[in-house]
Amino acid sequence: QQKKGINFTALFAVGAFLPALGDTEAAAVLAEFVSGTRKVPIDTFFIDSRSAAFLQAAPDGKQLTEKIHFLGGFGVREFNGLKVAYLSGCYDTATFAKPVEEDGPCFVGAAYTATAVQKLIKLAKAEASPIDILLTAEWPKGMEERMDESAKPKDPDGQEIEWSKISSPAIAELCDALEPRYHIFGGADLYYQRAPFQTKDGGHVCRCIALGRVASKGKARSAFHGLSLSPAATMPETVLKQRPANTTPNPFVTVTAPSERESTKRDASAMEEPEEDPIEPDTVFLGRLPANIEEKRIQAALKHVGKIERVHLAREAGEGSPCKGFGWVTFSTPEEAEAACDLDGMLDCGGRMITISISRPKNRDGGPRKKKREIQIVVEPHADCWFCLVNPKVEKHMIVTATTEVYIATARGPVNPYHVQILPVKHAPCFAACPPELQQALQVQLAALRKMFEDAGQECLVWERWIPMGSSSANHMQVQVLPIDKARAGNDARAALEAAAKQHLSGAKFKKLSAHTEVADNLNDDPTTPYIYFEIPGDLTAKGRQIERFLYAAVPGAGPRIPIDFGRQVACQLLGCDDKVDWRQCQDSKEGEKKLAVTLRELFKPFQVKGKPKPKSG
User: Fold this and answer.
1) Cα separation of 600 and 319, whole Å?
2) Are 340 and 302 in contact (CB under 8 A)?
3) How far is Cα 71 from Cα 77, in angstroms, rounded to an integer?
4) What pLDDT, on a 0 to 100 scale, did the predictor assign at position 372?
5) Sign of the dihedral defined by the CA atoms of residues 39, 40, 44, 48, in that order
6) What average pLDDT does this structure show over 333-347?
7) Helices (H), 459-589
């Protein structure tokens, strides 16, 4: 990489860096570097998992040669502003089970003790800014949890991964407590990057990266990974706490650390919900609540997020008794629940910061757990998403038509009876993130809808809103298509967008585009940038009705936040029906929704696309 002109400041090595006993070939190679016969081109800092003698002789680290440094047993160091925490050694069940002692040994042979882990946690907690990098020799146990099956690590040779041999519950405890931005580890001869997960207290995400062994062949066993990082201490909080669209829940929320033997029972206020249940997308779980909390205080704190349907606090002995430290709030929509999750770790209540996350249902009366419902459709990745066809709860009675890639459905609470939406069959967060072939499939169906409405003497108002949600299962794109009278096209349509923006999106600057596909080029190279996109029927020319395309991208620090219902606000401004901005006020019965879908299905049949023709431009 250096020869390619990519300059790195330092190299950090994890795993078993020093040669094993009896490995004369590896020992001879290391001796060449130590003697100066061979030189390394870059400062190299390593931990080691198996050299008991080295750990005992140099617990605080040691320089082997000019640019090779042993970091030591454990500690926190700063490199060019980056806070790097590290732990050498390996996990041994019997050794780690011994109680924490202030003056006790940190290592027994090559095995670290609970004392070492607790001291490292204490050191890291004393730092003013988050830990940027954590280095360990072993994988954290349970790291693969709370992920889609398809995203979990797999051996390239098809062998079953022996988690008990490569992972450590102590490392899981350490990662959970330190909340590093990056956790680098080895030990399994696998190269793997886990999707980022949400930290519980810091608010930022943690990324776990596993490295293979040096000299192993193939990308799936690569021993190297390059990072270009800014120290957390120098980053604006809004940037540090950005959550990518593929962020998962914390996999370590149920970790019970063996080294907590010296402490009392786990505080109920820090409880988390169990991880094995499907989510309730309209309900949030609140943790770290004080005993004297009241429902009305929760209502007051969250009422600005959306319409609250119910607040339920777990109490010791019924109404009026102390709160157990957790509870639930049900909102009227999943979007409102996701907006509440943005306040995770930001609400101070009784001197503690409340945790907020999408709920996973269980028996809230404290009785025995109900048997988990079996989902017969086993299709990944998002069986919990309300818009994925793999979800058994999806509202299939609203579907107008479906292909293998895209489906059209009536809108719930439509602005007018023929308001529909186009959605991908598979889980895709937004149009800008779709591969070209899926973008084309979406545009083909939009062109067919335009033709249907054109034959009925109407034009189309089209919009797409992308606001990243904390739970990836809630990120399923929808292109809204609303037929309007031709008399409202042109100046009226443009005026409606301007008026709605002035009232609800003050300060936003819309950019004119020539195609929907250009959205991705205007997101500041950040796929998590929220945006709202419109296609407005413009002026009528000799070539036909022109389609005008407008984009507002909410780049952090550069403009206002996009209201969840802004697209409907523009539509209702244009049609003069402000009472329909809230979709809940327009919702029909299930039977009414079904009849409307059947009607649209019949109307759309002559315009259904067979095969994959290219969409018309315009």
Assistant:
1) 50
2) yes
3) 9
4) 35
5) negative
6) 79
7) 491-504, 566-575
- Cβ burial, residue 479 (10 Å; 0-12/13-18/19+): buried
| Amino acid (1-letter code) at residue 56 | Q
Q: Where are the beta strands (DSSP E) in 26-141?
A: 44-46, 62-65, 68-70, 74-79, 82-87, 107-108, 111-112, 133-136, 139-140
136-170 pLDDT tens trace: 999 999 988 877 788 899 999 999 898 888 999 99
Dist. CA 273–CA 326, nearest whole Å? 9
> Can you give the pTM of this predicted structure?
0.47
456, exposed or middle or buried, with CB in 10 Å at 0-12, 13-18, 19+?
A: exposed
**Tokens 């072993």 correspond to what residue?**
138
| DSSP 8-state class, residue 611 | S
Per-residue pLDDT tens digits for 466-515 = 987 755 566 788 999 999 999 999 999 999 999 999 998 988 999 999 99
At a CB cut-off of 8 Å and minimum separation 6, what does 469 contact?
335, 338, 341, 475
On whether the CB atoms of residues 121 and 179 are closer than 8 A, the answer is no
Give the whole-angstrom CA distance, residue 184 versus residue 14. 7
The Cβ of residue 616 has, within 10 Å, a number of other Cβ atoms equal to 12
Q: What are the C-alpha distances in Å from 235 to residues 226, 328, 346, 470?
A: 20, 33, 18, 21
**Cβ-contact 495, 449 below 8 angstroms:** no
Residue 608 CA to residue 54 CA, distance in Å, equals 72
More confident residue, 556 or 49: 49
